[in-house]
Recover the amino acids of this structure.
């Protein structure tokens, strides 16, 4: 096989209570990429469609991730990459992660799968760092593993695959405003109140337990963020309104997707997910802010070959 | 049934990463209690053996817990309580919890089980507050439910039963020094570094996942406390030595039991648990500090009728 086309899905990091560690994978929105072997050694990006991103390998997240993988293999050929972006950069649903994860997944396939998923995540993390300024895997892990994931640590990189209750759907609203990840990080305090931290880890433990036993009520009550949301929601106009409307429409829980501005909800069943989408729409329709809506089941498999 | 005799086991709260929320139940050490119906209404404590504790109902944790339960039933009789304490107060393995939990468990049996385990935990929490100054359920929950528990919240009280891998044993060393719970709480900062909090909730999530899938390696790597132990270990002489020795002897993880001074380890298999006990012994034998050692499987059932 000399060429492969893949779909690299959008992902939601943090999942309310699990700042920097939890994530899940979407199904209905993602980038496509074509990766092919070339006689010329090295990595080149030959096409980017959809959004204006750097073509220079070392400045492109996919390029840097590809280079990180290439360093670990001895081959007498190279790779060229075509990126068809559907996930808007800066939307908060893992746009840069999708590019970084997709390319290393594709290269691994073309090479006969010498690397496992954790190793691929490690390479992708190197790429993601170009966009976010630091190495995180909370969007990468769900893209590469699928389903819900927990990044236990980044050094060494340890990723856990959590179970996904089969009737779980996400709804995402992406208000078209710009929040830079670096700004979203800067707004967070360096220290937090111990009591809030306790609440947060009780919720993380409860959410993990709830996913294992498919207890939607427990999942719902665990989907709370008392640490990050109070700060970051200030960056997202009408966040409180959108959250309230979604919960009233039946969402299990609502939170900021990654560093925003996208807002996610988790829902039991596709019908509820669509009702929540309607609720999000009703809120943002009245604001003059443009927005996109996505409804997606939780994608249990992650990146797929097309 | 007019009289019941029960065994109320010692428990370990916090479990390294899960400060204030996680706990597990021991099997080989605990108090015995006899509770019987009396013609006289109200609660009276008629005997306490083992340690010198208040006989006055309203000043005794078992008495206060019993009163909290009694308030919720209409009966034309009362209860008297005999307490045979084996768990030294202030040891850090849930001495006051065992008294508070034991009495409400016993009364519930005599009354024909009108209350569920969470309700019993609620009553016991009222008793425990007499000893610790605030309402906590992290020792009560494992005593009443057995196994590993997670206190999701205390208001409203929500307790989750986590799975217990079948080959899990605890080793406890109790250096005979006094630490008051209130002092152990006062030494903690009100605020903690966000990065440490993230590490802690990654570990809580990982531990819960590890218990579900019986992954002893994961459990081992999750049993770390970067938030509380650095402060509280100063109150426990030779803590670092004991921890190092236990880990070298094969313990999965080591931490402070509750607010100390007891130190716990979790271990795969009884043989390792005994090796760890030997390692603890070797450390404290050289210090001149008296100590007790316990090896126990994790008790999956909690309080039991004798």
């Amino acid at each position: 096989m000399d060429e492969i086309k893949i779909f690299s899905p959008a992902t939601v990091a943090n999942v309310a209570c699990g700042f920097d560690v939890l994530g899940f994978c979407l199904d209905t929105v993602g980038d496509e990429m074509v990766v092919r072997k070339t006689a010329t050694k090295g990595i080149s990006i030959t096409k980017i469609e959809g959004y204006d991103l750097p073509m220079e390998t070392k400045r492109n997240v996919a390029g840097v991730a590809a280079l990180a993988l290439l360093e670990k293999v001895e081959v007498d050929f190279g790779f060229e990459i075509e990126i068809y972006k559907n996930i808007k950069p800066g939307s908060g649903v893992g746009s840069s992660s999708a590019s970084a994860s997709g390319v290393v997944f594709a290269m691994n396939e073309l090479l006969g799968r010498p690397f496992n998923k954790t190793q691929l995540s490690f390479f992708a993390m190197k790429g993601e760092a170009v966009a976010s300024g630091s190495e995180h895997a909370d969007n990468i892990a769900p893209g590469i593993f699928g389903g819900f994931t927990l990044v236990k640590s980044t050094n060494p990189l340890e990723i856990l695959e959590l179970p996904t209750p089969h009737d779980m759907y996400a709804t995402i609203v992406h208000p078209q405003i710009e929040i830079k990840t670096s700004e979203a990080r800067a707004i967070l305090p360096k220290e937090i109140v111990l009591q809030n931290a306790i609440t947060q880890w009780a919720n993380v433990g409860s959410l993990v337990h709830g996913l294992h036993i498919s207890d939607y009520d427990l999942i719902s009550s665990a989907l709370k963020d008392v640490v990050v949301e109070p700060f970051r929601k200030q960056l997202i106009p009408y966040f409180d309104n959108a959250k309230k409307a979604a919960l009233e429409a039946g969402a299990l829980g609502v939170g900021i997707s990654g560093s925003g501005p996208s807002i996610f909800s988790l829902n039991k069943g596709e019908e509820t997910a669509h009702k929540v989408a309607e609720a999000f729409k009703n809120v943002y329709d009245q604001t003059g802010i443009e927005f996109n809506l996505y409804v997606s089941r939780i994608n249990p498999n992650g990146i797929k070959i097309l």
